[in-house]
Amino acid sequence: MDETAEDITATQETTRSRAGRYLTFNLGSESYGISVLKVREIIQMQKVTRVPCVPEYVKGVINLRGKVIPVVDLRLKFDFGETEVSKHTCIIVVAIVRSDGSDALTGLIVDAVEEVLHIEAGQIENTPGFSDSSISMEYIDGIAKIRDTVAMLLDIDQAVAASVLERIVEDNQP
C-alpha cells in the first residue's frame, strides 16, 4: 500500500516531535533511552521493601526523602530475567503520568546509566512492524541510530502502566 503525502507528513511530524535529549541506559547489552523531561534524578541502588500481591516486575517501594515511590525492575518488565545487582546498577526516578493526568514518581532499576544525548529527528526511525500481532510495541517510541549502535527510545508512560503503580502508592505526587 502506497503512503499518501498526508501519511508522510504525519510521520515526519512525529519523528520531529521525538527529537530531543534522552538519558540512555543499559539493560544487559542493549541500550535504551527515555526523554530527560521524564527523569527527575538518578540514585544508587538501595534496599527495596517488597509489597505483596503486585506483578513480579514491581520490586516494591522505597522512601525517597519522605515520599514512598514504587520501583520497577525494567529487566523483569521486558522479560529479560532478574537484574543482577552490580556497582553500576541504579534507579532512575521518573515522572509517570497517572490516569488523572498528574505525575507520579516511579523508580526504574537499570543495569547502568550511559549518557545524556541530543538525538536529532534524522537519527530516529519508527519501530518496525511485526506480522505477529501478539508482539506489543506500543511502549517503544522509536529506534535511534547512535554512532555504530541503536537505542530503543521508550515511551515510559506506556512501558510502566501507571494504573498498576497507582494501586501500590496512592499519594506519591512530586
Task: Describe this entry's structure for a reader.
This protein has 174 residues and is an alpha+beta fold. It has one domain: CheA-289, Domain 4 (OB fold (Dihydrolipoamide Acetyltransferase, E2P)), CATH 2.40.50. It has four helices and eleven strands. Strands 8-1-2-11-10-9 form a six-stranded mixed beta sheet. Strand 1 and strand 2 form a beta hairpin. The longest helix has 14 residues. The chain is globular. The chain starts with a helix and ends in a 6-residue tail after the last helix.
Gyration radius (Cα, Å) is: 17 Å
Integer tally of domains: 1
Mean pLDDT: 82
Determine the fraction of residues in helical runs and give it as a percent range: 10-25%
* Regions with little confidence, pLDDT below 50 for 5+ residues: 7-15, 131-135
**Beta strand %:** 35-45%
For this structure, the CATH topology is OB fold (Dihydrolipoamide Acetyltransferase, E2P)
The helix/strand class is: alpha+beta
Give me the side-by-side strand order of the main sheet. Answer: 8-1-2-11-10-9
GO cellular component, one term: cytosol
Organism: Ruficoccus amylovorans
Protein name: Chemotaxis protein CheW
Domain CheW-like: 19-165
Which SSEs are present, and which pair or pack?
Layout lengths: L4 H14 L1 E8 L2 E6 L3 E6 L13 E7 L2 E7 H4 L12 E8 L5 E8 L1 E8 L4 E2 L14 E7 L2 E6 L1 H4 L2 H7 L6
Parallel strand pairs: 2-11, 5-7
Antiparallel strand pairs: 1-2, 1-8, 3-6, 4-5, 6-7, 9-10, 10-11
Q: Can you tag this structure with a few keywords?
A:
174 residues; six-stranded mixed β-sheet; five-stranded mixed β-sheet; alpha+beta; 4 helices
